[in-house]
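Reading a protein record of the kind used here takes little practice once its layout is understood. The fold follows as a row of integers, each naming the local backbone shape at the matching residue. With these conventions in mind, the following record can be read line by line:

_____
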Amino acid sequence: MNNKFYNFLNITRKSGNVLIGYNKCEDAIKHGKMKLVMMTEDLSQNSKDKFTKYCYDRDITIIRDMDKEELNAYLCSKEIKIIGITDENMSNKLLDLWRTTNN
């Protein structure tokens, strides 16, 4: 994975526009604050299905099956499985970087 994506994700986190964890992401989606959702490959299938439905119903973009170890290493954490981005401009930039590095 290109470091540009994760470097910008860290900038986004430092700016306060990253929500980490199931409950925070779920609440932000329900309140219309979420712009982008990212899930790791080891998130349970039930949770993947639930967030996919939430995002589909609200037209929120999803990045699926991210590498858990890589995500956690860059965000200096151990058990991140789902994160959300609340800023539209930052979410668009992250999505562009993701598509560029994964095509």
In short: The mean pLDDT is 92.
